[in-house]
Amino acid sequence: MPELPDVETMRWYLQSTSLHQEIQAVEVHAPGVVRSDGGGDQSAVRELREELVGCSFASTRRHGKWLFVALDDHSERTLVLHFGMTGGLKTFKDMDDEPEYDRVLFRFANGYQLAYVSQRKLGQVRLIDDVAGFIDRRELGPDALDADLDLAAFRNLVEGRRVMAKALLMDQHTIAGIGNVYADEILFQAGVHPRTRVSALDDQTVERLFHRMKEVLRTAIRCQARPDRLPDTFLAPHRHAEGTCPACGARLERVKVSSRTAYYCPKCQRRAP
User: Fold this and answer.
1) Residues in CB range of 35: below 8 A, 6 or more apart
2) 91-124 per-position pLDDT tens digit
C-alpha cells in the first residue's frame, strides 16, 4: 500500500505536472472508486464532473496517506485522493500511452491527461468541503512529518501504550502515514523488535525511535520512495524470504503483528523483556 513517502512523491508529481491547467473533461471508468459520504454512486460521479469541469487544480497538501488537491477560485471544494493498495498517478498526452487500470481520467485544455490508476479498485476519489473536518471525522493522528509532531508530542502519544511497537507505528489514529514497509524500516533503524511493547521502551529508545521515524521518511521521500534508490543500510530492499540484514548479514526473520508480516533482524533487534 502506498505510504507517506509514496503519497508525498505523488503530490510532487501532480504539483509539477497538473496545476493551473483547465479541466475540460472528467472520465470515470470505475464508478465505484468515486465516493461521497453515502458511498460510491452515480450522483457522486455526476457531482465530480460538474464540479471539476472548467476548474483547475490550484494547490496540494498531504496528511498521512491522503492527498488533497484544492480547486481554483471557481470552486471552494477540495479533491481527495487515496491510493488503496496499488494506486498511483500518471500524466500523458498520446492516448496510446494511457495506463492500464486507469479508473478516473482528468483531461486538460493543454492536451494532457492525468490518470488516477488503481489496479484493485481499493482507492477512492471524492470531493469535500473542509480538509480539517475530513481529517477529524476519520480520527487521523498527526502526520508523521508534521513539524508540530516534535519529541515531546511523540512522547505524549506513546506514553502508557501497551501495544506492540509496530502496531503503534501503523495505527493511523495515533500517527498518520506509516504502513507495513516503513514501520519495519523505522524499527530496524532504531534497533527495536517489532513485537516489543511500547510500554517497555525506555526514554532513550523512545527518543531514538522518534528521530529514526523522521529520518527514514525524509530519506525515502528524497529517494522518491523507490527501493532501488534507498541507502544500502536500509532494510526495505531486503524484505523478502531470503533477505539478510544489511548491517550484520544475519538471515531476516518474520513475525505477525496486527495481522501484518514484520521483517526484522534477530541480532540487531532483540526483543525487550
Assistant:
1) 44, 124, 125, 126
2) 999 999 999 999 999 999 999 999 999 999 999 9
Range list of β-strands (E), the chain: 23-28, 34-36, 39-40, 57-63, 66-71, 78-82, 88-92, 102-108, 113-117, 124-128, 253-257, 260-264
* Catalytic annotation, pick one of 11, 35, 62, 65: 65
Q: What is the layout of strands, in order, in the sheet containing 102-108?
A: 23-28, 102-108, 113-117, 88-92
Q: Is 215 a catalytic residue?
A: no
Question: Known catalytic residue: 2?
Answer: yes
pTM score, whole prediction: 0.95
In sequence order, which residues have a C-beta less than 8 Å from that of residue 37 and are 6 or more positions away? none
Which of 163, 165, 171 minimizes the C-alpha distance to 144? 171
Catalytic residue, chosen from 121, 197, 254, 260, is: 260
Please identify which of the residues 3, 8, 51, 185 carries the catalytic annotation.
3
Q: Is 5 a catalytic residue?
A: no
The answer to whether 256 is a known catalytic residue is no
